[in-house]
Design goal:
Length: about 625
């Protein structure tokens, strides 16, 4: 997203003919053309979890065979399992599956495949306990430290259309090419707000506090505590004296001459607006949740950042009290929607956890009821008070995660059961819509509407990727965060059902039935290399990473995750498939690293490792 600034700057400078003559490296990534490909998670697979390779074949030969090797030695052989015909991404290809989930001995695995005269091998992948966490945890955390924003100028920033100046120092830059800082953006479009810096702060505080044994076992406890308090300190500074959080510190993506300030903005031009007071959906809810959890972490650890645990809790309570009165008027349309419900619910759960006050449970019950009322009979959610389906490119799993958190604080059996029923319906919907069509990679599908006159309207459609014609007017990109959020939701929600005895029997990894475990694994596998491009979006891990495109996507940090794969350029509905086709000025959509991606990946791998040290 940040790299959009580069694109806009480029458009403003087209009159400078000399710049067009500068040598540039044009990056264009197309689908591999080899007749036989074996795609696999290139980073790590869980010893007692789903393990699957996908074979793509463009040829005329019939059935093929495979061999699974562990540490270079064959351990399993068989015939390739054909999958349903699938033409949307690569017409003429056939797809096969190799499942080696029953191979539970640690080691380095590889899948060799032969069809006719063609032979191909997968990338090698380590298999172990706590696989992705143990392999990547230190660098996922390191990404946040590498992304810290420490420019002293942020200690004295103007608020848009005001003479006031405030201290908004600290936090994290939002993306590889964007030094802006966001609790959220896209608020002007009402239904697209992603939880950005405040979500990161909450995941870090939650991990350090609730998953302490996991991080300590890998020597990462001090590191995650430091980063959690860094995030909490930033949230304290961005809490205005009136009680609202500043949504954005923005400079039009680094456009020369643009003033950096506390502001809202909208559209591809980055036009400054007064929408800088964070509603629940614009990062305010998760900021409250993060501060409340940071207060618990401070109490548990005996440590804190620049401010102490008592201050963090006081901030959270003051922020909630303010939004309880004024939240609706901070939204662009003056109405609350589903994002307000699930982020406010997260805030209330954490306030109740931190304070024990019954008033927060009362309000959480109301928010949970509102969220559940938005659910359709088949388990999908509606975003508004009408028929707009809920779809989200960064946090589609957060409604289930918020309801799962609410279950943990609800003592009344009837209310708890209603939340569990909603979780069960939501997870069933995700499985149903994803499996409704041929889908060799198990990529999570979604419902959506296209826009008409700036509003979602018309037929409710289904597809793999976010539609390009949506209410933002310009914003669409890869969905690495969305996939990790759905993986986390399937694990967290699925375990909640299992704990309450409402899930099917039979476990196939992560304490889940086979279909749920496979779904959770499929979403992370896509980001970690098991996709049609054979590319791991997690930089520094896997056989092949996205290219560096400084002109439009900025820096690439180890532990950062690129936006990822999208529908084809020019497709309103996001059908087809594309990754970094050029021109360079647009490549932020695929290549740029963005803080929600690493945030959600960290949360998902914590969930996978939840019951292990």
């Amino acid at each position: 997203m940040a790299a959009l600034a580069m694109a806009l700057a480029s458009l403003l400078q087209v009159a400078a003919a000399a710049s067009a003559e500068k040598s540039k490296t044009t990056v264009s990534v197309s689908l591999p053309k080899a007749p036989l490909l074996v795609q696999i998670n290139q980073v790590a697979l869980e010893r007692q979890g789903p393990k699957r390779a996908i074979v793509e074949y463009a040829g005329d030969a019939g059935q093929g065979s495979y061999t699974v090797l562990r540490d270079g030695k064959p351990i399993k052989q068989g015939e390739l399992l054909p999958l349903q015909p699938f033409k949307e991404w690569s017409p003429g290809k056939r797809y096969f599956s190799v499942d080696f989930s029953d191979a539970e001995q640690a080691g380095k695995y590889q899948v060799d495949v032969r069809i006719g005269k063609q032979q191909a091998s997968s990338a090698p992948v380590p298999v172990r306990d706590n696989a992705v966490f143990a392999t990547t945890g230190a660098q996922l955390l390191g990404y946040f430290k590498r992304s810290r924003h420490t420019d002293e100028a942020d200690r004295d920033l103007q608020i848009f259309q005001s003479t006031r100046r405030v201290n908004a120092w600290g936090g994290w830059q939002d993306a590889g090419g964007d030094k802006g800082k966001y609790l959220s953006h896209l608020g002007y479009a009402n239904y697209f707000n992603p939880q950005q810096a405040s979500m990161a702060a909450w995941v870090l505080a939650y991990g350090a506090h609730a998953r302490k044994a996991l991080f300590a076992a890998h020597g990462l406890q001090t590191q995650i505590e430091d980063e959690a308090f860094w995030g909490a300190d930033y949230l304290h500074r961005t809490l205005d004296a009136e009680g609202y959080f500043y949504t954005t510190v923005f400079d039009q993506w680094g456009t020369p001459g643009a003033q950096r300030m506390v502001t809202g903005y909208e559209g591809a031009a980055g036009t400054y607006t007064t929408l800088y007071r964070s509603a629940f959906r614009a990062g305010g809810g998760m900021a409250i949740a993060a501060l409340a959890r940071a207060s618990m972490l401070a109490k548990q650890s005996g440590r804190h950042g620049e401010f102490d645990g008592a201050q963090y809790l006081a901030d959270a309570e003051r922020g909630y009290a303010h939004l309880r009165k004024f939240n609706a008027q901070y939204g662009a349309d003056g109405k609350e929607n589903i994002i307000d419900d699930y982020t406010a619910l997260m805030a209330l759960v954490e306030l109740h956890n931190a304070s024990g006050q019954s008033a927060y449970l009362d309000d959480a019950r109301e928010r949970a009821a509102r969220l559940i009322a938005r659910q359709q009979k088949d388990g999908g959610f509606i975003s508004d008070g009408g028929r707009r389906p809920y779809y989200h490119a960064a946090e589609a799993g957060l409604p289930v995660i918020s309801l799962s958190a609410y279950v943990d604080i609800e003592p009344e059996q009837g209310r708890r059961q209603r939340a569990l029923d909603a979780i069960g319906l939501a997870l069933a919907h995700e499985l149903s819509i994803t499996n409704a069509v041929a889908n060799p990679y198990g990529y999570a599908r979604q419902r959506f509407q296209l826009t008409r006159d700036g509003k979602a309207a018309g037929e409710v459609l289904e597809g793999f990727f976010i539609p390009h014609r949506n209410e933002t007017g310009y914003w669409w990109q890869g969905e690495s965060a969305r996939l990790a959020s759905l993986s986390a939701a399937m694990i967290v929600g699925g375990r909640k059902l299992a704990d309450q005895g409402t899930a099917e029997q039979g476990k196939a990894g992560y304490g889940l039935p086979a279909d749920r475990a496979a779904y959770a694994q499929n979403q992370l596998d896509w980001t970690l290399g098991r996709n049609p491009y054979g590319m791991s979006m997690l930089y520094g891990f896997g056989k092949r990473n996205p290219p560096t495109v400084l002109e439009s996507a900025g820096e690439m940090f180890v532990g950062g995750i690129s936006n990822g794969i999208t529908g084809a350029v020019g497709s309103d509905t996001g059908s087809g498939i594309s990754f970094a086709p050029g021109p360079d000025s647009e490549q932020w959509r695929w290549v740029e690293q963005w803080i929600p991606h690493t945030t959600w990946m960290l949360f998902a791998v914590m969930a996978m490792s939840e019951n292990r040290s």
